[in-house]
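Open question from group meeting: does this chain pack into something compact, or does most of it stay loose? Before anyone orders reagents, we agreed to write out a predicted structure and look at it together. Recording both the input and the output here so the notebook holds the full record.
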Amino acid sequence: MSRLIRLVGDVYYSMSLRTKLIISYLLLIVLPVGLLVYFSYMNIHKTVLQQSGLAYLEAIKQAEKNIGYGTETAKAIGDQAQNSYDIQRILKTVSQRELTLSEEIDFFMLLNKNILNYEMIDNIVTVHYFMNGNARFVSSNPNIRNIELLALEPSLRPMLSGNVHEGWFGASDFTQMSFARSDELIYVREIRDLGTLSKTLGYLMLEINSRFVWNIIRDIRLPEGSVIAVTSSNGQLIESEYTANLDKGLFEAVQTEVAGEPSKGIARIKRGLMDYYVVYSAIPSLGWTVHLIMGEEQLGANSAWMTRFLFGLAAVICLLAMTSALIISGTITKRLKRLVRLIRHAEKGSLKTEDNVRGNDEYAQLQRAFNRMSVEIKQLIEEVYQAKISKQDTEMKLLYAQIHPHFLYNTLDIIHWSALRIDAKDIAEVTQSLAKFLRHSLNGGKDHIRLSEELDGVERYMYIINFRYKGSIRLTMEVEAETDEEVMPKMILQPLVENAVVHGIRPKPQRSGDIVIRAWREGDDLLLQVADDGAGMDSERLATVLERYSEGYGVKNVHQRIQAYYGEDCGLSFESAPGQGCRVTARLKPGRIKEH
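Structure tokens returned:
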């Protein structure tokens, strides 16, 4: 996550100011607009779903009324059969005794006429009468059947037990009576004895062409991809042209969802990643329930135009936001680009300024500050130019001054040979040591020498000092192997040795003593130590030794030069006590020399 944040940060900081302004502006406009469009769409879509569901529910109610008008014919036929004197007489007689031949013929003619009259009515396909007794008469006509056949059908058992007096069925509800066709509705009506109204004489069954029902249901305009499922009173699916593409699993989920719910309503079903809606309502006249099953996309199809409008509006707003972002950012960065051009000219040495600076905004303040800076830089350049000329003049003078050391070397060389001619060897040695010491000090203008050269210079210095003190100061060197080739700044040890002579040994009454120079490695560090057995120092003087100035290369100068070359963790350290001499240790880091 932190890596991703760093990557985003790198991309952001690599962008131009104008790009950052455009992105920030668009985020402030596009993000709120996007959220507004999204929540508006969700709210409108939800409202459309509700309104569309209610509209389809109302359409089912209207279909229910129209179907009710169609079923009134069947009920009217049932009422006529129930109240017909001839039907009552025939059913009673057949159930009570054997018929005479003349009665059989008479009853056959009456029933046949009755059946033919009913079958001439629209949508009535076949009329059946079911009765008890008189097997010969019952088998004389295919439209006259024995009640025992009804008992074979589980769906008719509630009616046979007297709990229900009439009912509507689909052909699929009958498993034993094969005469009913799949596209027919079955209306069964109980016929009771008008005398007692408690005895069942028989049953009337009408086979009705179901085309009028499906035509009414078809008038419910459904979006493409939707499915209509119709179930009978016992929950069985009524097969029709609409059930060919019905997902059985989806239908089972629908039945589970609406089970125990009111007779009409709207339900939402989650199946996998899809949301489905079912609008359902019962048709009391048939005992059926109509289910309109459709996906959320089909039910909310009416919100498509609003969706297009909202996203179109969002696109227009984003376009306007982009245009205004380009204009505003261009206005802001245009002046900054002019300032950047002036800065690039300044990098090339052309210090131009913009004279006509208007306003007092941040850019105007920045431009005025740049103008002041350019003027000051011009003045500094002029001063540096003058200083450079002065430096060149000084360097010329130094070149001329180099003649003097050569003259001094030549003079000392003349003294050296003159002393040898008169056999003054001490004077010759001192003169030669002084010449070598001066050459070591100047070193051709170089700042760094090898440790061995530094030690050689110290020996020359001590030879001259002992000429004065008649050899009373003894110098000892303890140098670790291979350290003599280390490169170091010149004139480090000589000032320390001189400090040991002047402040350590000379104050002693005899003016004699020992000086020991040590050199060794400690890790990557090179340590140089000058120890004497002189007068030493008290703690108060020891605490301020690096704060005092002295002429020439004093110890403070040595300490500062070491830190300048090697860093603050290097330099001089002192150990001393009154009457116990002094030890000065210089810590150097040969592998870390700062550039000067």
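Observations to bring back to the group:
Residues 17-83 form the longest helix (67 residues).
The CA atoms of residues 23 and 263 lie 56 Å apart.
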